[in-house]
Specification:
Layout: H1 13-25, H2 30-49, H3 60-74, H4 78-97, H5 116-119, H6 127-140, H7 145-156, H8 160-164, E1 171-172, E2 177-180, E3 198-201, H9 204-216, E4 232-233, E5 236-237, H10 240-250, H11 276-289, H12 294-301, H13 305-312, H14 317-328
Antiparallel strand pairs: 1-2, 2-3, 4-5
C-alpha cells in the first residue's frame, strides 16, 4: 500500500533527521547514532542549498542529483558513498512510515554497487552492522561459537591469529580481560611475536558470553602440549581458516534475515560478507569515532600509529572535523 501525496504531512529535512535519530537511539548505540548523523548531515545541507524545506517535495530525480553532488562535493570513494546513500535510504524508508515521503521513495535511492576487488583495500565492518550482528547472535545463537568469535573480534579488534592462539586459561572472565601470549614452541604465534603479548580488556557482557560459551558449547579437548584451546572442534584446535569462514558467514546480511541487495542465488559466498580484517578495521574505526584516544587504540590493537593512520582509521574527514570541533568548543 503506497501513501497518497495528499496524505503526506509537511516536515523539514533537519526535523526529519532529528526525529529519525531519536528513533534510532531507542535501540542503537550512541556511536551508531553519531555515524547516522555524520552521514545525513550532507543531505540536510544539500536540501538547504537547493531550496528543499519540505521532504514531501523530494523526488527520485532529486535523489539522483544529490547522489552526483555528494560524490563530487565530498570527493568520496565508492565505499563511502555507498554507506552514505544506504543510510539515506534507511532514513527515507522510515520517513515513508510516518507519512513524510511516499512509501516507495526509498527504492529510488541508487546505492552504488562495489565489486569485491574494489572493496578489498578499504573493506570495513560498519558499527551499525556490527551491532545488528551482535543483537541477532545474542537473541538467537547466544554463546555459540559464532557468537563467541564475533563478540571477541569486534570488541577487541584482535587479529584472527591472536584469537586462534588463546587457551581457556588465557580468558579471565571474572577480571574482564584476555591475555595474549606468543607460544611458538607450542604451536601458536602472535604476528608481532613477544611484542604482541599483552592483556586486552573486555566488557563484562563479552566476558559473560565467553564464559557461557566455555561452559556450554566449547568442545572439551586438550592438545599434545596439554593446552586447552579456547576455540575448538571435536578434533582439536579450531583452525584459523575456520574462524575466517565463521566471520564470512555471520557478517552476511542474509544470515540474519536482513536485506542483501547484492546477493545472487547460487553464490558460494555472499558479496556483502566481510573478512576478519574488515572486522578489525571496523573495530578500530569504531573506537576512534567514539573519541577513544589514538594512542590508547594503538596500544590495544597492537598497531603502530603510522600504520593505524594509513590503513585502519576509516573515519571520514567530516567525522574527524566534528570530533575536533567538540574539543575546540570547550576551549
Amino acid at each position: 500500500m503506497s501513501t497518497d501525496e495528499d496524505d503526506l504531512e509537511p516536515i523539514e529535512p533537519g526535523t526529519a533527521q532529528e526525529l529519525f535519530l531519536d528513533h534510532k537511539a531507542t535501540d542503537c548505540t550512541d556511536s551508531t547514532v553519531r555515524n547516522h548523523r555524520y552521514r545525513l548531515n550532507p543531505f540536510v545541507r544539500w536540501c538547504g542549498e537547493n531550496g528543499i524545506d519540505n521532504l514531501n517535495e523530494l523526488s527520485g530525480r532529486d535523489l539522483q542529483r544529490y547522489r552526483l553532488w555528494r560524490k563530487e562535493d565530498g570527493d568520496l570513494n565508492k565505499l563511502t558513498l555507498r554507506m552514505q546513500m544506504s543510510t539515506l535510504r534507511v532514513l527515507l524508508k522510515w520517513a515513508g512510515s510516518i507519512e513524510a515521503v511516499p512509501q516507495n521513495l526509498y527504492d529510488k535511492v541508487m546505492v552504488p554497487r562495489v565489486h569485491p576487488e574494489e572493496r578489498k583495500r578499504d573493506e570495513t565492518l560498519d558499527a551499525e552492522d556490527a551491532q545488528e550482528i551482535m543483537d541477532y547472535l545474542s537473541k538467537y545463537e547466544y554463546a555459540s561459537k559464532e557468537h563467541a568469535v564475533m563478540a571477541l573480534l569486534w570488541q577487541t579488534g584482535i587479529r584472527v591469529g591472536s584469537a586462534h592462539s588463546l587457551d581457556v586459561d588465557d580468558v579471565f572472565t571474572d577480571e574482564n580481560y584476555v591475555q595474549l601470549i606468543h607460544r611458538p614452541d607450542e604451536g601458536t604465534t602472535l604476528k608481532n611475536a613477544k611484542s604482541g603479548q599483552r592483556p586486552v580488556a573486555l566488557t563484562p557482557a563479552v566476558s559473560e558470553v565467553l564464559a557461557d560459551y566455555i561452559r556450554n558449547h566449547r568442545k572439551d579437548v586438550t592438545d599434545d602440549y596439554g593446552r586447552d584451546p579456547l576455540f575448538t572442534t571435536p578434533h582439536g584446535w579450531m583452525h584459523g581458516n575456520t574462524i575466517r569462514r565463521i566471520t564470512y558467514r555471520v557478517t552476511a546480511p542474509c544470515y540474519r534475515g536482513a536485506d542483501c541487495p547484492d546477493c545472487a542465488a547460487g553464490e558460494e559466498k555472499c558479496p556483502e560478507a566481510v573478512s576478519p580484517h574488515a572486522i578489525r578495521r571496523g573495530s578500530i574505526t569504531h573506537f576512534l569515532t567514539s573519541d577513544v584516544p589514538v594512542d590508547v587504540v594503538s596500544d590495544r590493537m597492537n598497531v603502530s600509529r603510522k600504520v593505524l593512520d594509513e590503513h585502519y582509521d576509516k573515519r571520514s574527514e567530516e567525522v574527524k572535523m566534528e570530533q575536533r570541533r567538540g574539543y575546540l568548543d570547550n576551549v
